[in-house]
């Protein structure tokens, strides 16, 4: 039996002749199998959502990756041809959800587009086409139809000693996958860097003085849950935080 309900903001996707509010299966299954929680996909309404109505009912929030990019107007930069594709309804939902999740101390795990939204939600900015920047590696998704190859572990990162992430996976070198062309540029004032790649790309952050679990990672631990110790540890730690909140709702509400 799963214990704890976790909100996952939907993407808007076009297929089968319809618009869908959808979340990728790999996040749903990582939450189910790696965290032992029940995921709840939250629709991305174009006019906005009462996120507190959602947060009153869940014990955690998982922000997924997605091929779309946060619209640069959310961090005060003009749109260029390099910024798309966009999903403005997802931006609207995720940014509002992240802000209130942190304010209320509800456990938060943000992955790939999620860490980028976390940084933007707290006042930071993003760099685009980072592979074209001097000294940076190519972090983009490998060109292959083979999903295991696309999500294969590709480069190492350094997890900082004493960080929240180090308390979960240990500090030092960790090998991760990479499927992104944007990354954190200006770090939001309330975020601490937890891990960096060899080229300086910020790979993990935590929320400073967070009331609860609040971590973002630029890579995709969800894909290898069940097959990779580091991925398992991250989802297990998130699940533990979600269950702790679920088990003591009165204490959680009093702490808000
Ligand atoms: N805006 C981001 C998106 C990164 C991300 O979340 N990627 C997951 C999608 C994987 C896929 O393409 O299948 C960026 O930096 O590119």
Automatic annotation (TrEMBL):
Hydrolase in keyword set: yes
Keyword Protein biosynthesis appears in the UniProt entry: no
PROSITE patterns membership: GATASE_TYPE_1
SUPFAM superfamilies: Class I glutamine amidotransferase-like (SSF52317)
Keywords, alphabetical: Hydrolase
Single Gene Ontology MF annotation: hydrolase activity
InterPro entries xrefs: Class_I_gatase-like (IPR029062), Peptidase_C26 (IPR011697), PuuD-like (IPR044668)
Coiled-coil annotated spans: none
Protein name: Gamma-glutamyl-gamma-aminobutyrate hydrolase family protein
Protein's organism: Hoeflea alexandrii
């Amino acid at each position: 039996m799963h214990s704890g309900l976790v909100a996952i903001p939907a993407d808007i996707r076009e297929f089968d002749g319809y618009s869908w509010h959808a979340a990728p299966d790999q996040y749903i299954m990582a939450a189910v199998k790696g965290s032992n929680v029940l995921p709840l996909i939250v629709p991305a309404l174009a006019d906005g959502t009462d996120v507190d109505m959602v947060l009153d009912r869940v014990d955690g929030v998982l922000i997924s990756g997605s091929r779309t990019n946060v619209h640069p107007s959310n961090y005060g930069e003009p749109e260029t041809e390099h910024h798309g594709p966009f999903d403005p309804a997802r931006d609207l939902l995720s940014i509002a959800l992240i802000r209130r999740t942190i304010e209320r101390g509800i456990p938060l795990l943000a992955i790939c587009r999620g860490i980028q939204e976390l940084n933007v939600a707290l006042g930071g900015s993003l760099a685009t086409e980072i592979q074209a920047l001097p000294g940076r590696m190519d972090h983009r998704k490998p060109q292959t139809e083979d999903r295991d190859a696309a999500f294969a572990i590709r480069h190492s990162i350094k997890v900082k000693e004493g960080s929240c992430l180090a308390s979960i996976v240990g500090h030092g070198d960790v090998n991760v996958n990479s499927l992104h062309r944007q990354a954190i540029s200006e770090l939001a004032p309330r975020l601490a860097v937890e891990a960096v790649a060899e080229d300086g790309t910020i790979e993990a952050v935590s929320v400073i003085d967070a009331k609860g679990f609040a971590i973002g990672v630029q890579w995709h631990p969800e894909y290898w849950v069940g097959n990779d110790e580091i991925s398992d540890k991250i989802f297990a730690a998130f699940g533990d935080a979600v269950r702790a909140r679920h088990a003591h709702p009165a204490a959680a509400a009093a702490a808000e």
